[in-house]
Amino acid sequence: MTNRLTKYLRVTQQLIEEGRDAVSSKELGDFTGINPVQVRRDLNAIGFSGTRGVGYQAHDLVESVRAILGLRQTYNIALVGAGNLGSAIASSAILPKRGFVVHDVFDNDGDKIGRTVGNVVVKHIDELEKSVAAADEIIGIIATPSHAAQDVAALMVDADIRVILNYTDVLLHVPSNVDVHRIDPTAQLMHTLYYLTQAESSEAAVPPVS
């Protein structure tokens, strides 16, 4: 259920940013691809109920789901890779709204070190362990070329980072107590294309009406 709650949270936060005060189970279902009946079951399971004809109070729903997911505090991020992808992540206006702050950015390219991405000055990768310890950065993001990903992951493990978001195509080898999430846009595309081809096949199988 955690994955579904995360989706409800993201959608509700976006609707709040659009000026909405309430959201219905149908809207949550439409935007997440989850059956509205399942939406109501999930929210009932965490003790949150809506009002018929109105829906769920959006701000209260966000607070309730954030509490269930343990997202009441701000989480510092150590980002490695100051190229195009890393710069885009560091400059994101969405992360701070969700409680995530890119506190430090690291690279080993002398041309990037000292530059500012987002609001952060790029540091040399050798400073990672000291910076993480000082800032209590508990989440690491790897946005480097693939060949550097495993070495960066090892540095993050040595710095006691226990949650890593991996934007490369490398399968990282880390201790069992480190939680790695691979961010792979191609996987989502393949998932989407699968359902698209299934829908097209179903339409092709329906005989035309004469």
Keywords:
210 residues; alpha/beta; Arc Repressor Mutant, subunit A; Rossmann fold; 2 domains; seven-stranded mixed beta sheet; elongated
Any chance you could write out the topology, listing elements then pairs?
Blueprint: H1 2-17, E1 22-23, H2 25-32, H3 36-45, E2 56-57, H4 58-68, E3 75-80, H5 84-90, H6 94-97, E4 100-107, E5 116-117, E6 120-124, H7 128-135, E7 139-142, H8 149-158, E8 163-166, E9 179-182, H9 185-205
Parallel strand pairs: 3-4, 3-7, 4-6, 7-8, 8-9
Antiparallel strand pairs: 1-2, 5-6
CATH class division of the largest domain: Alpha Beta
Shape, principal axes of CA atoms: elongated
Largest sheet, spatial ordering of strands:
5-6-4-3-7-8-9
Sequence stretches where pLDDT stays below 50 over 5 or more residues: none
Say what the CATH topology of the largest domain is.
Rossmann fold
Please tell me the CATH architecture of the largest domain by its name. Answer: 3-Layer(aba) Sandwich
Kindly estimate the percentage of residues that lie in beta strands according to DSSP.
15-25%
Number of strands: 9
Number of helices: 9
Helix/strand-derived class? alpha/beta
- Give the rounded overall mean pLDDT: 85
What is the string of SSEs from the N terminus onward?
HEHHEHEHHEEEHEHEEH
Proportion of helical residues: 40-55%
Radius of gyration: 21 Å
